[in-house]
Automatic annotation (TrEMBL):
Lineage: Eukaryota, Viridiplantae, Streptophyta, Embryophyta, Tracheophyta
Annotated coiled-coil segments of the chain: none
SUPFAM superfamilies hit by this protein: alpha-D-mannose-specific plant lectins (SSF51110), Protein kinase-like (PK-like) (SSF56112)
Keywords: Disulfide bond, Glycoprotein, Membrane, Phosphoprotein, Receptor, Signal, Transmembrane, Transmembrane helix
Source species: Liquidambar formosana
Domain Apple positions: 338-419
Organism superkingdom: Eukaryota
Protein's name according to its UniProt entry: Uncharacterized protein
Main subcellular location: membrane
A GO molecular-function descriptor: protein serine/threonine kinase activity
Signal peptide as annotated in the record: 1-26
GO cellular component: membrane
PANTHER family named in the record: APPLE DOMAIN-CONTAINING PROTEIN (PTHR32444:SF183), BULB-TYPE LECTIN DOMAIN-CONTAINING PROTEIN (PTHR32444)
GO biological process: recognition of pollen
ATP-binding recorded as keyword: no
Length: 572
């Protein structure tokens, strides 16, 4: 018998019904002379993966691959997803023509691989990567494979698998969810590299887009959901685009990490890592992670911020079209005037919009990119294509901008086309991002408190992704104002004064300028003990310890009363 290197497993299966004794030998290889029957398995040389017949619902039989060393029976690939067998008569054969045939008890073809050519000595081998390959027994070269399971993913990506498109053969590597946990036939969801415009990863339900990763920026996709740190310390991400193929891969730096990415039956992409100590899969990351990850939830020119309520706001220079019906349409305050000159406003730290109608070029500077965009009236925005090494290349968008969200972790700058009359304006900054030439008054609560009778703001406020001002406001309106202040200082005799300063501070940073007290009221409020209005939600905040406030009070000069100083910082 012709067998290559492999793990030899002796399986003794006693059939209680017929009292036949079946002896079978499993290796990592199936040859023309040695087929695989239900009950037998092949195991990869390093013992990582096993291929054989299994039954997720205890009735229907499927041919598949699962982790050998992992007791949870995690299946990573299924051959006959849509054509299960009703019994254990299945058999897998390698034919002279160089194809794999999965036959049932009456020799009907249940599933088959295909191949562009035939070879002398075809062998099927399960590799330790989890890839099941068909090749010429005398030819080890990966590029000469006749067929490989990695080309036909199910719901799982293993390290080394590609997500993308082979432009020569038209083959697409993409994930499709299982119908349910016990039914591997393709469900509603797919996860693919969408090649239109500038490529981006996309989860779809049928033809409806559910989630977009944002474009690749040389380090990562700009998505918020993945929470990739750039560069990620555990995985190497790679995006390849050339004449032949376009694909995305990810693999752990340490190849002994057992990791997989799954598109589950609810359309959620999840990365799991196996933890030996606990003998369990650990969910490392997931996408989408929140409402803001729902595709275009805030509509064109809307921006989503998950720590805000409501989450959707119009970008600077845009206003809600119809406030009454609560719809998310944002329209320009000032119409563009392309012929007579528009300009751009820079928005920082955003997940870039859907790039399906975009154009890009690697060899271009940002300044050249701006000119290209300016000279085409349907260009609505531009940015750098590659943010490594200080930024290079050009990516421009045509038509409405969709699917923008605030992303402090992986966000990128984008320059959005504006009527020239919008450009020089100062003032309104609610829900807005930093604009190129503006000086913003910044109101720093920490500074306020430090300047006040030596009190300090609770350090914990700055933790966990919410801005400290937002947290302070939440605690205040939830009648938990003491938690804003350091525990050690809560018994102080000046506590009431401090709380009053914080209260007035929160009034000064309310979102709408018309709600904020005037300078003279601030002085009166700080000097008296009268009742104060409840502070409304603060304006746009981010993860830095600052809040951007508008100019109606405390602008450009410190305002002080009764020895209490409120410090107003200037940005840049
Ligand atoms: C094999 O499949 C064929 C076609 O689906 C079917 O007619 C036949 O009954 C099956 N045989 C067994 C043993 O299941
Ligand atoms: C090979 O089979 C797959 C389905 O398993 C099919 O989508 C693909 O078009 C086939 N390719 C060729 C070259 O026949
Ligand atoms: C890779 O991970 C294994 C298991 O956690 C560890 O023993 C090994 O030292 C790691 N190798 C490197 C190069 O970090
Ligand atoms: C602007 O770009 C669009 C999309 O690429 C193109 O169809 C159109 O011809 C361009 N217009 C000009 C004036 O270059
Ligand atoms: C402020 O408080 C700290 C710690 O309680 C103390 O060490 C420091 O001397 C105080 N500063 C003033 C100016 O009272």
């Amino acid at each position: 018998m012709k067998t290559s290197m492999g793990v030899y497993t002796i399986l003794l299966l006693c059939s209680s019904l017929s009292s036949f004794l079946i002896l079978s030998i499993a290796t990592d290889t199936i040859t023309m002379s040695q087929s695989l029957r239900d009950g037998e398995t092949v195991v990869s040389a390093g013992g990582s993966f096993e291929l054989g017949f299994f039954s997720p619902d205890s009735v229907k039989r499927y041919l598949g691959i699962w982790y050998k060393k992992i007791s949870t029976g995690t299946v990573v690939w299924v051959a006959n997803r849509e054509t299960p067998l009703a019994d254990t008569s299945g058999i897998l054969k390698v034919t002279k023509q160089g194809i794999l045939l999965h036959l049932n008890g009456t020799e009907s073809i249940i599933w088959s691989s295909n191949s562009s050519r035939s070879v002398q000595n075809p062998v099927a081998k399960l590799l330790d990567s989890g890839n099941f390959v068909l090749r010429d027994g005398n030819d080890d070269k990966p590029e000469n494979l006749l067929w490989q399971s990695f080309d036909y993913p199910g719901d799982t990506i293993l390290p080394g698998m590609k997500l993308g498109i082979n432009m020569i053969t038209g083959l697409e590597w993409y994930l499709s969810s299982w119908k349910s946990t016990d039914n591997p036939s393709p469900g509603d969801f797919t996860y693919r590299l969408d090649p239109y415009g500038y490529p981006q990863l996309m989860i779809k339900k049928g033809s409806a887009v559910q989630f977009i990763s944002g474009p690749w920026n040389s380090l990562t996709f700009t998505t918020y959901g993945f929470r990739n740190r750039s560069p990620n310390p555990i995985y190497r991400f790679n995006f390849v685009s050339n004449q032949k193929e376009m694909y995305y891969t990810s693999e752990p730096f340490n190849s002994s990490l057992v990791t997989r990415v799954v598109l589950n039956q609810n359309g959620i992409i999840q990365r799991f890592n196996w933890i030996d100590r606990t003998q369990a899969w650990n969910l490392y990351r997931t996408a989408p992670i929140d409402d803001c990850d729902s595709y275009a939830i805030c509509g064109a020119y809307g921006s989503c911020n998950s720590v805000d309520y409501p989450e959707c706001e119009c970008l600077k220079g845009f206003v809600p079209k119809n406030v009454a019906d609560g719809s998310n349409k944002c329209v320009r305050k000032m119409q563009l005037d392309c012929q007579n000159g528009d300009g751009f406003i820079k928005y920082s730290s955003v997940k870039l919009p859907d790039t399906r109608s975009s154009w890009f070029k690697e060899s271009m500077t940002l300044e050249e990119c701006k000119l290209v965009c300016l000279n085409n009236c349907s260009c609505m925005a531009y940015t750098s294509l590659d943010i490594s090494k200080g930024g290079s290349g050009c990516l421009i968008w045509f038509g409405d901008l969709l699917d923008i969200r605030v992303s402090t972790e992986n966000g990128q700058d984008i320059y959005i086309r504006m009527a020239s009359s919008e450009l020089g304006k100062k003032g309104h900054l609610l829900n807005d991002y930093t604009t190129e030439d503006q000086e913003l008054p910044l109101f720093d609560l920490t500074t306020v408190a430090k300047a006040t009778n030596n009190f300090s703001i609770n350090n914990k406020l700055g933790q966990g992704g919410f801005g400290p001002v937002y947290k302070a406001w939440r605690l205040y309106i939830e009648s938990r104002p003491l938690e804003i202040i350091d525990a050690s200082l809560r018994d102080s005799s000046s506590l009431l004064e401090v709380l009053r300063v914080i209260h007035v501070g929160l009034l000064c940073v309310q979102r709408f300028p018309e709600d904020r007290p005037s300078m003279s009221s601030v002085i009166l409020m700080l000097g008296s003990k009268g009742a104060l209005p409840q502070p409304k939600q603060p304006g746009f905040f981010n993860e830095m310890n600052i809040v951007e406030a508008d100019s109606s009070s405390c602008k450009h000069k410190p305002c002080s009363a009764n020895g209490v100083t409120i410090t107003v910082l200037e940005a840049r």
